[in-house]
Amino acid sequence: MLEVLQTIREGIPDIFPDAMGFPIEPETPLNRIPEWDSMSSVNFKVFLEETFGVRIPDDLLEGGSTVGEVITFIQKGGLMDPSSNAKIPAHSQQAIAPNALKEIQVPPS
Q1: How far apart are CA 36 and CA 90, in angstroms?
Q2: Cβ neighbours of residue 68 under 8 Å, at least 6 residues apart?
Q3: Is the pLDDT of residue 78 over 80?
Q4: Which residues have CB under 8 Å from 93's CB, separation 6+?
Q5: When comparing pLDDT for 27 and 108, which is higher?
Q6: Which of 15, 31, 77, 99 is exposed most, by the fewest CB atoms within 10 A?
Q7: d(C-alpha 92, C-alpha 81), whole Å
Q8: What is the H or E stretch that residue 67 is in?
Q9: 99 burial class (0-12, 13-18, 19+ CB within 10 angstroms)?
Q10: Cβ(78)–Cβ(54) under 8 Å?
Q11: Could you read off the pLDDT of 11-28 as tens digits, one per residue?
Q12: What phi, psi does 29 have (nearest 5°)?
């Protein structure tokens, strides 16, 4: 958990400049992070997906979800994206079908 938490802490100031020095702990509600709004939550989601190589459901970042809930989701592997170049911690890897996330190819008509 500490590795994922540290990575999130390091990324927070780029997304939420006013959160510099704000304590980010597992029990911190996401909506308590300074500057948290719908646009910054999208930026946070992109950060998480690109950093950890998982797909984050929108509802995980809504309401009173905590940093710890996000970390737990990431550690359980979420929905892994095999096309991602993210460095995924070994403890959070999860096997899925190789073609599970490939785009569907529709032949021209």
Answers
A1: 30
A2: 1, 25, 26, 27, 28
A3: no
A4: 77, 80
A5: 27
A6: 99
A7: 12
A8: helix 67-75
A9: exposed
A10: yes
A11: 999 999 999 999 999 999
A12: -65, 135
The position carrying tokens 């096309």 is 83
Phi, psi of 54 (to 5 degrees): -120, 160
Q: Which helix or strand (DSSP H or E) is residue 80 part of?
A: strand 79-80
d(C-alpha 1, C-alpha 74), whole Å: 9
Q: Residue 21: count other Cβ atoms within 10 Å of its Cβ.
A: 7
Give the domains, in start order, of the chain with CATH numbers: 2-92 (1.10.1200.10)
Q: Show the CA angle centred on residue 82, arms to residues 36 and 3, nearest 5°.
A: 50
